[in-house]
Amino acid sequence: MSDREANRAATRRRMRRVLVDRGIDVVLMVFSLLMLLPLVFLVSNGFKTPQEMLAWPPTIIPANPTTDNFAAVLQDTPLLRWIFNSVVFAVLSTLAILATSSIAGYILAKFRYRSLNVIFALVLATAIVPFEVYMIPLYFQAQSLGILNSIWGLLLGYLVMSFGIFLIRQNVIHSIPDELLEAARIDGAGELWIFFRIVLPLLRGALGALGVLAFFQAWTAFAWPMIVATNREAYTIEVGLALFQTGFTVDLGRLSAASAIVLIPSITLFVILRRNFVQGVASTGLKE
């Protein structure tokens, strides 16, 4: 084969690779738009009148935009109180899960005891047990403690995450060498100093990813807050949004407006921590 033919073959391979990459980009872009379309309609419906909302075919941009749905939601329901309850609940739950997962994950990864393998197996086993299995006994425990209709009652079921312990353990194993910890111990560092000054800074990406997962787990919780919070003022946002749906009707305008307002905190958090989220999840599957 001459040099000219070899160059032509290489050019064809490059063009074929470029076309395949562009095709993949187009497919991913189309799927991304399809996934965003329900959110776009959700926000759009919040600005529509009831007549326009039921019109066919549906429109993305309202013909006569109105803020009546948002005004009615804010005036007739304690939406801001529900958002405040959800934010406090989600933040405290996230902090508790980050604390328990980082401590347990570090111990299970770097301390050599046979019993720790058994404990880690039990932690993984709890991941396959649905929350609804032990939700009722947990409710009676919250009732006996007198923490119903409070943030502490909500937190009782969201203090530990088995996946979080697994995530931190894997990151500690693959990203923190034993030699680094041994060098710190030889220099006279204590275990608490090592944990706070060496381990936690190196786990920043994993903790960011876990923080996002823990926040959204608490933010979207429905079953547990529904049975713990019986007072209207103690509702979280997910339970509050369910009030817009009755047995026979759904107030689509107010529901869309309230849901659009609720999207703001969650989207803001994900935008801020998206880099840590991707980095932490990707580093979990790294090999030594």
TrEMBL record:
A cellular-component GO term for this protein: plasma membrane
Coiled-coil region: none
Record flagged with keyword GTP-binding: no
Keyword Ribosomal protein: no
Pfam annotation, one family: BPD_transp_1
Localization terms from the record: Cell inner membrane; Cell membrane
Annotated ranges, domain ABC transmembrane type-1: 83-273
A GO BP annotation: transmembrane transport
Transmembrane regions: 23-44, 82-109, 116-140, 146-168, 194-216, 255-273
Record keywords: Cell inner membrane, Cell membrane, Membrane, Transmembrane, Transmembrane helix, Transport
Its membrane topology: Multi-pass membrane protein
PROSITE patterns tied to this protein: ABC_TM1 (PS50928)
Entry's family note: Belongs to the binding-protein-dependent transport system permease family.
Subunit structure: The complex is composed of two ATP-binding proteins (UgpC), two transmembrane proteins (UgpA and UgpE) and a solute-binding protein (UgpB).
Functional note: Part of the ABC transporter complex UgpBAEC involved in sn-glycerol-3-phosphate (G3P) import. Probably responsible for the translocation of the substrate across the membrane.
Protein name: sn-glycerol-3-phosphate transport system permease protein UgpE
Gene coding for it: ugpE
